[in-house]
Amino acid sequence: MSAEPDDLYKFVFRGLLAEEALDRAGRHARQHGIAIDAELAATLSIDLLDDELVSSARSMATVYTAIAAFENSVRSLITTVLLEQEGEDWWDRCVSEKIRTRSESKQKEEEKFRWHTPRGQDPIYYTLMADLVSIIRQNWSHFEAYFPSIEWAASIMDTIERSRNVIMHSGLLQRPDVERIGILIRDWIKQVGA
After folding, report:
1. pLDDT single digits (tens) 48-97
2. CA gap 141, 128 in Å, rounded
């Protein structure tokens, strides 16, 4: 028994209406492999921007997610290790004055804009990836159990930072760069743990 053209039309039309109703209800749509919150997209007026530019930016959103999570996991590792081994005042005792001054200056500058969400509550959230490498290097005896060498850790972080900087300045990474990030993050996690 084959469907009549009218029945097929009704079936497809009901499906489109159901999709539209789900979107209006706030369903997270999937576009380019990324879950898109329809309400958030509307709040940001994404529909008013150029489709090609939005598509390119969305392709980098997943890469940004991986890099941001990686960077904050390094901050978490540093904080956890130094807090356990050096105590509550680890920031003052284990981080160079140059890094502390720059981070605390950025934090104070941000505090002037009380209407805006801050990066974080702790000064480590105001560090650069290069600063994180320096903190590990300065406290190598506490981290050598986690890494085969400081050069290994620095190489991974330097390479990921290079890609991070491209994305943070609205650039697009090519596939080999994205694949490299994935390999480096997997290597880091296998070595250091989650």
Report:
1. 888 888 888 888 888 999 999 999 999 999 999 999 999 999 999 999 99
2. 22
DSSP states of the chain as a string? -PPPHHHHHHHHHHHHHHHHHHHHTT-EEEETTEEEEHHHHHHTTGGGS-HHHHHHHHHHHHHHHHHHHHHHHHHHHHHHHHHHHH-TTHHHHHS-HHHHHHHHHHHHHHHT-TTS--S-SSGGGG--HHHHHHHHHHTHHHHTTT-S-HHHHHHHHHHHHHHHHHHHTT----HHHHHHHHHHHHHHHHHH--
Give 55-69 pLDDT, tens digit per residue: 888 888 889 999 999
Does the pTM of the predicted model rise above 0.85? no
Angstrom distance (rounded) from CA 149 to CA 40: 43
